[in-house]
């Protein structure tokens, strides 16, 4: 019987972090703050109230820089809460494959954070279970993590990343 996949998987090179969880029902620690550049989250446009375009652009630029500074400050806190560094080599809306220097057990539940973009900083988090371990020739171990719990916003961010990556690959092949 052929396996049907609900999400497309793509090879990638992303960084991320894990924390070990005592069980599948442990509460998630990571919560991504919504991106405020989105119209749905910020329906008020100050330009409609008579703000000049120049001032509006300046304030948007300052807001972006403040977001970047706050995310840099938060990096140390993130490393303390999620001490296991990972290198994601494949991603989909259903899970990830990754490499890490930390030994993990099969069926271990973890909370994962994946850094989808550095500027502006975009991350997605999910709870999952280690379902496969494959030793590699270089001595590293490749792990497969199936997501067991993911917020809708985080899933949407991953799916958008996968589609954008596919579009970029197709555009690149057009010029080859």
Explain what this protein looks like in three dimensions.
By secondary structure, this protein is α+β, with helices and mostly antiparallel strands. The protein has helices spanning 53-81, 152-174; strands at residues 10-21, 84-92, 95-100, 109-118, 121-135, 141-150. The protein has a six-stranded antiparallel β-barrel. The longest helix is centred in the middle third of the chain and has 29 residues, at 53-81. The two termini are 37 Å apart. Residues 36-41 have low confidence and may be disordered.
Detail the topology: elements first, then pairings.
Blueprint lengths: L9 E12 L31 H29 L2 E9 L2 E6 L8 E10 L2 E15 L5 E10 L1 H23 L2
Antiparallel strand pairs: 1-2, 1-4, 2-3, 3-6, 4-5, 5-6
